[in-house]
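new request in #modeling-help
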Amino acid sequence: MQSTEAKRTPMYAAHLAAGARMVAFAGWQMPVQYRGVIEEHTAVRTRVGLFDVSHMGEVRVRGRQALDCLQHLTCNDVARLRPGRAQYTALTTVDGCFVDDILVYRLDETDYLAVINAANATKDVDWIRQHAGAFDAEVVDESDRWCQLAVQGPAAAATVAELSAAPLEPIRYYGFVRTELAGERVILSRTGYTGEDGFEIYADWSAGDRLWRAVLDAGAVHGILPVGLAARDTLRLEAKMALYGNEIDDTTTVYEADLGWIVKLDKGEFIGRRALVDQRASGLRRKLVGFELGGRAIARNGFTVLAGDEPVGRVTSGTFAPHLRKSIGLAYVPIERTEIGSELSIDVRGRRETAKVVATPFYKRQ
Amino acid sequence: MYPTDRRYSKEHEWIRVDDRVGVIGITDFAQDQLGDIVFVELPEEGKAVRAGDVLGTIESVKAVSEIFSPVSGRVSAANSELDLRPELLNADPHGEGWYCKIELDDPEQLDRLMDAGGYEEFAQQGS
């Protein structure tokens, strides 16, 4: 049936031609891997990798009160953005929990672009529209208009510089420019989900395939590889970046998720501010921490975390980290167990594996 | 493509028998499906198993897969090289990536398994 068929990005044919194993994800046909998770992960950490992330959603918020509208909806301070800057933030619930984690780009004085997770696209648009009613601002779902690529790794800048009309050196982390890449008009931002230097590229949907091929050509001399969703997950986990549905959702507060740095209580009123103020005053009862397992067994989402014999929490994400060559993960544990070095165990399919709390991010680029 | 000196199970394991000892591993199809293997849980020597029992597990970055014994018998050896180099299972699943050895209770159980040609057809159907 047409309605249940997964959508395709502009790079679908290119993925198949490259031998990608495809999977249906959030209603999209996406590449899960091409050559293999470890090889793709390693390419990003040591050279450069290219991701098709066109499944992400985009919402344009424009108008006289666009800023006020976004300030009301998010916990970070949107007023800190000048045109040409972006910020990581969250759409928060009245409980100070997550509707979604998003990026907000300030395109112009009264013109913003919010980039939202594919899995939450419909929900987020509805949420924003619902709460924008009180403001003189228009909300437009532009998800069908924009395709998105990410170029990440130590050689990402060299690769993109080949194609970019604008020089890259002035673009700071979380800054962006509107320029041309291989003759296509793009938003080029120094952002990413891997912990490496790199860029995210937003372009007209129709330019997706051309841009994909242009980046692969420019990156060939640097050993570029296309990278699928499997390696995207191991990369973001090593960099301790949250995944909606695992680390964050509408039951976890921004503070519990160890994302207090995106909460700016003094920026003014926003949905969930009262709950976050209260939680900061009363103190956290649990928090997200990173852990390492003693052996190579892998902790998976949902596995029980124990202190002694007592179940105290749950694993949110876990993997064998290809670059670090260790078994790592994230879990919510009681606040008294969150100290670095705190000893825990994880129930891995009936076996107790020793684990200890470690500092995060697990990986930091040089 | 699949070695003819052995038999194959529907769970994508192979068994090559010498005297009454069967060497067991996973097929090339299985390792390809699993992806990069990062951890192998091996059976203990001396463990008694019946055909269909779980011998251990193989973990790839994304998933974990159980290894079922194709025959009844007693585990006589496990490939400890896989502790150090689980990637051997991807690189040489029919050779150096062997999983364990089992002393067979009943060699006639092999008749229930597929030969190389039968398995090749089975794997192509995508099971």
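bot summary: Chain B is about 20% helix and 35% strand.
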